[in-house]
Amino acid sequence: MQRTRFGDMACSIARTLDVIGEPWSPLILRDVYVGITRFDQIQQDLGISRKVLAERLRWLVENDILGRREYSRHPPRHEYALTDKGLELCDLLLVMIRWGDRWTAGEAGPPVLHRHRGCGEISRVELRCSTCEQPMHATDIDVLPGPGAAL
C-alpha cells in the first residue's frame, strides 16, 4: 500500500505528520528523551516488533530527528540521541502531554510529572505569544496566508 506523502503539502501540520505522524515515532522520541537510547531497551519498553522499530529508527535518523552512534562493534550495536531538530519536536510532545493529562489521565491523574529546571517547581507547558508573552490558545488566533502558502 502506498503511503500518502504529507510532506509535499503546503501545510506545516501535514509536513510534521510526514515525519512523526504514525503512532510509534512519538513514543520512540519520548523514550530517547527520557534516556532509553538503545535498540533493545526501546524495543522492550514499547513492546514494538524489531522490524517496525528498525524501520522507524532508520526513518527518524534519515530525517535528522535522531542521531545514531555505534557503541559495540561485535556484535554491531547502536544507541540513539536526539538532534536539535528532535529536541524541538519534544516541545510538541510536551503540548500533547498537557492535553493528555487533562483529557485522558482519568482519576489516577497524570502518569508522570515535569519539574522545570529553571525554578525547580512541578509545572506544565503553557503556550504563549512570542511577542507579548500572553497565553495563547486556538480561540485567540486568526489564521492568515503566509509566504509559503499554496496559491
Low-confidence stretches: none
The biggest beta sheet is recorded as: 2 strands, antiparallel
Structural Rg: 18 Å
Percentage beta strand: 5-15%
Total helix count?
A: 5
CATH class value of the domain at 6-84: Mainly Alpha
* Number of separate strands: 4
CATH superfamily caption of the domain at 6-84? Winged helix-like DNA-binding domain superfamily/Winged helix DNA-binding domain
First CA to last CA: what distance?
Answer: 30 Å
Instruction: Look up the CATH topology of the domain at 6-84.
Output: Arc Repressor Mutant, subunit A
Mean pLDDT: 92
Task: Tell the overall outline.
Answer: globular
Which strand order spans the largest sheet, edge to edge or round the barrel? 1-2
Which second-level CATH architecture of the domain at 6-84 applies?
Orthogonal Bundle
The percentage helix is: 25-40%
* SSE run: HHHHEEHEE
Strand pairing plus helix content: what structural class? Answer: alpha+beta
Name some characteristics of this structure:
Arc Repressor Mutant, subunit A; alpha+beta; globular; 151 residues; two-stranded antiparallel sheet; 40% helix
Quick recap:
This protein has helices spanning 12-20, 24-33, 39-46, 50-62, 84-103; strands at 66-73, 76-82, 114-115, 122-123.
